[in-house]
Amino acid sequence: MTHNVVLVAGSANLDFVVRASHVPAPGETVLGRDSATFPGGKGANQAVAAARAGGARTRMLLALGDDAQAASLEASLREAGVDCRIKRCTTQPTGVAFICVADSGENAITVAPGANLALEPADLPALDDVHSLLMQLESPLSSVTAWARAARAAGVRVLLNAAPAQPLPPDLLAAVDVLIVNEGELAAIAGNDGSIAQRLAALDVPCTIVTLGHLGCCARDGAAWLLQPGFAVTPVDTTAAGDTFAGTLAAAIAQGATLQDGLRRACAAGAIACTRAGAQASIPNVGEVDALLATVDATATGRQHLAHYCGIPE
């Protein structure tokens, strides 16, 4: 049996998106412009990214309400080629997210989890042909921890995108092989003391990765440091850029790519996602990522700047 399946266990939400000049400050009302709905949710976004990355089969455990909003989420996943394992919830509605996207491309997101909170430890599908389990933190933390421990016991590689930011229990971290965070999430887990490199090194996880927006990403893999500068794009909407990174990286790892190659593909895919509106609608396919990588690459200057920013000795 070929073990190249990426199993994503996590959230699916319908995104309600409003574009505005800027994200409102506390107590401020901003007059927005156009609005639209898009299939989203960190888990579903990452599953779509893994499926569109090509090569690895993608499966997803998710929970949906018994309502009209569930249909578009399921359709988007299946259209991307994701094998859905759906828990139907009659007591909670399908999860939703309310997103304000500023003209700069930055966003602010509020999530109402709904049915996502119904996922329980026992809902994890069989892991017989699974290479990697990818999770996030929009599902109950007790379930995420149980899934990670079950996967570790089965010899499945465990990837955790620790978003939304929150402190992580030691027993969850102990079962994680690859931890993916952005700067804010790193601060929530490891604090603000020391450089980015020092905080990554302090985490007791075999591989830790921090995404740094347009700068790219930095990874500590055992004792080795890996840097991948970002790809220059003009951002339209950064929603799902981090999810695109995580799903693309998981697919690359499941196919046997080196971590450096996986980081390069993940950064390229995330950059493309920033140039389009919406969550799953913005995620590129493998051909689009290949095209970007064939024409654009990071420079030595970008690598040196990234090393300096992270506090890695050259």
Automatic annotation (TrEMBL):
Annotated transmembrane regions: none
HAMAP family found in the cross-reference section: Ribokinase
Protein's UniProt keywords contain Magnesium: yes
Entry's family note: Belongs to the carbohydrate kinase PfkB family. Ribokinase subfamily.
Pathway listed: Carbohydrate metabolism; D-ribose degradation; D-ribose 5-phosphate from beta-D-ribopyranose: step 2/2
Binding residues for substrate: N13, L14, D15, G41, K42, G43, A44, N45, E138, D243
Record localization: Cytoplasm
Name of the encoding gene: rbsK
Residues reported in the UniProt entry to bind ATP: N182, T211, L212, G213, H214, L215, G216, G242, D243
Described purpose of this protein according to its UniProt entry: Catalyzes the phosphorylation of ribose at O-5 in a reaction requiring ATP and magnesium. The resulting D-ribose-5-phosphate can then be used either for sythesis of nucleotides, histidine, and tryptophan, or as a component of the pentose phosphate pathway.
Identification of the protein by name: Ribokinase
GO molecular function, one term: ribokinase activity
Subunit structure: Homodimer.
EC number of the protein: 2.7.1.15
InterPro entries: PfkB_dom, Ribo/fructo_kinase, Ribokinase, Ribokinase-like
Chief place of localization: cytoplasm
